[in-house]
Design a protein that fits this description.
two-stranded antiparallel ribbon, 52% helix, 93 residues
């Protein structure tokens, strides 16, 4: 895995984890009972984005280490994921 592939893998994992973490512990204007005129009651009042970004980074680093380790070790190859045999037989070594 090249450096560019590693960075792209980390970015994809980070954003997936971040989008999962976004709705957790969100306090909406409707929950707090003070809706600003012209906004929806579901608009966030306290979103805790900085804390969520740090937590996301920690989780993404751990997941990236595991996934990159599996990729680099060769435990799972692209041929293992070829369910329909579209790649044909493996070349002799």
């Amino acid at each position: 895995m090249g450096i560019t592939s590693a960075i792209v893998l980390f970015a994809v994992i980070w954003f997936m984890v971040f989008f999962i973490a976004l709705p957790i512990r969100i306090e909406t204007q409707g929950d707090l009972g003070k809706v600003t005129p012209g906004t929806h009651a579901g608009s966030p009042e306290h979103h805790h984005l900085k804390k969520k970004a740090w937590i996301t980074t920690g989780i993404a680093v751990v997941l990236w280490i595991v996934i990159a380790g599996v990729i680099l070790s060769g435990a799972v190859t692209i041929r293992d994921l070829d369910m329909f045999n579209r790649m044909g037989p493996a070349a002799p070594e």
